[in-house]
Specification:
Layout: H1 3-17, E1 21-26, H2 30-34, H3 37-46, E2 51-56, E3 72-75, H4 87-99, E4 104-107, H5 116-124, E5 129-134, E6 144-147, H6 159-168, H7 185-199, E7 207-211, H8 223-237, E8 240-244, H9 250-257, E9 265-266, H10 273-282, E10 285-289, H11 292-300, E11 304-307, E12 322-325, H12 345-348, H13 352-363
Parallel strand pairs: 1-2, 1-4, 2-3, 4-5, 5-6, 7-8, 7-10, 8-9, 10-11, 11-12
Helix pairs in contact: 3-6, 7-10, 8-9, 8-13, 10-11
Length: 380
């Protein structure tokens, strides 16, 4: 490397070390944002005193009390994710970001997304330093970029590692790579009061949270099987069963509970994000599809039985005791929200008994025990 190139790299690293107002772009679902929190923590740890703003999806504001490293969250609809966006809103968003006078922007994407639309947004907002993973040469759209290497799904990095590697490119690192989600005392008190009211004399019985929903239909195990699993755990372990989900998932929860002979409780549509986190933190186990609550459990250290559709391999529970259940299929890695084959075999072929065995193995572990599970392993 020539002396001029060495000097230029040193100047660039110094510029990133000097960032005081940082924009983090992650316009995705809850689980994606949670899997980005270690990278956000790396930025906060490497830039003492810096202010971090998160540009997120329309529902991102619910995370504001729970990400202590983030000063502000800007919820937004953007045209590079599904949904209708008025072009006038694009101009308003550029103006809002320009008003933020950010020194730098880091654009977090999954490997199948293009960072360039967000890069253009940040360039138009006058943000001088812009970093992202890209496949093609971005030229002036990015000041700094990392070539995309996650091109073969069988060799893909975990989503958390991918984002840590991105910020590591500019020298930002953290000593704690766990997911982050801070609980509020008011949410904990609310959940504790509810648990005491329902099970005042049964506190020693394991608490199992069951989440039957997922945003993508291709990632939903049949709700009735969740009910069968919960029924066995309630009968054999005396488990206290609580179903969770959004109001739009009430039908799925009802179908699951209809398969049970043992009692259960439903909090579907009744919990804020913070209260859901407090409930999962109190639980001995979460059983669910690969969706936001699985990553919330990972952030809170609650063991997870993750019924994992093989649409993509890089979103398994991170650094938490987990059992990841799937069936290998030729069409793995389809990246589809709806099964293109129509058979859903990667999860349809998982029997309730498999999930029961996985749950029992985790319930027998002391809370906080390390997991021997490879984060990308699937169980046949």
């Amino acid at each position: 490397m020539s002396a001029s190139m060495t000097a230029a790299n040193a100047d660039r690293q110094a510029a990133w070390r000097g960032v005081r107002r940082l924009l983090a772009v992650r316009v995705d679902n809850l689980g994606d944002v949670l899997m980005t929190t270690p990278a956000l923590a790396a930025a906060a740890q490497s830039l003492p005193g810096a202010e971090i703003t998160l540009l997120g999806g329309p529902g991102a504001g619910a995370l504001a009390p729970h990400l202590p490293m983030v000063r502000e969250i800007i919820p937004a609809r953007v045209p590079w994710v599904p949904g209708e966006v008025d072009p006038r809103d694009d101009h308003l968003l550029v103006e809002r970001l320009a008003d933020g006078r950010f020194d730098a922007a880091v654009i977090f994407t999954v490997c199948t997304q293009s960072a360039l639309p967000a890069a253009m947004l940040c360039r138009l907002a006058g943000i001088p330093l812009r970093l992202a993973h890209v496949r093609e040469n971005p030229y002036g759209l990015l000041s700094d970029w990392v070539p995309e290497t996650d091109l073969v799904l069988d060799e893909i990095r975990h989503e958390v590692r991918r984002q840590l590697d991105l910020v590591g490119h500019v020298g930002w690192r953290t000593t704690d790579e766990r997911l982050r989600f801070a609980l509020r005392q008011s949410d904990v008190a609310r959940i504790d009061a509810w648990l005491d009211g329902e099970w005042m004399e049964q506190g020693e019985r394991p608490l199992v949270v069951v989440h039957v929903g997922a945003t993508a239909p291709s990632r939903r195990w049949p709700a009735e099987r969740f009910g069968q699993v919960a029924d066995v755990l309630a009968y054999e372990q005396g488990a206290r069963i609580v179903f969770t989900g959004g109001a739009d998932e009430a039908g799925l929860v009802a179908a699951a509970r209809a398969c049970m002979r043992q009692p259960s409780h439903s909090l579907v549509g009744r919990l804020s994000l913070g209260q859901l986190g407090a409930l999962i933190a109190r639980a001995d186990l979460l059983v669910g599809n690969n969706s936001g609550p699985a990553h919330l459990a990972a952030a809170l250290g609650t063991p997870v039985v993750d019924v994992y559709a093989l649409t993509n391999p890089q979103h398994t529970p991170w650094q938490v005791p987990a059992r990841v259940l799937s069936r290998d299929v030729d069409c793995r890695g389809c990246l589809k929200s709806r099964c293109p084959q129509g058979h859903h075999r990667c999860i349809e072929d998982i029997a309730p008994a498999d999930a029961v065995d996985a749950a029992l193995s985790l319930l027998c572990q002391p809370r906080g025990a390390s997991s021997e599970t490879n984060p990308l392993e699937t169980f046949a």
